[in-house]
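Structure ticket #2291
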Amino acid sequence: LSAPMPNLRSLEFDYNAMGDTGAAALAASAKRLPKLEELDLSYNQITSAGMKKLAASKVFANLTRLRIAN
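Resolution: structure written out below.
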């Protein structure tokens, strides 16, 4: 995500096979998603390494709903 999305509240990234590389990219863009409340990362082959990068970022700061399924 290169452009700021200040009003984006929901993101559905399920079934995209983003893996840890995509998770790291999402983590790096967390500051561009200040109002994100809902995030679906189901079925993306994200391992614990990718989840750690996301958890260390601010992408989860305002979430009220997070969906992760394998």
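Closing remark: DSSP finds two helices and three strands in the chain.
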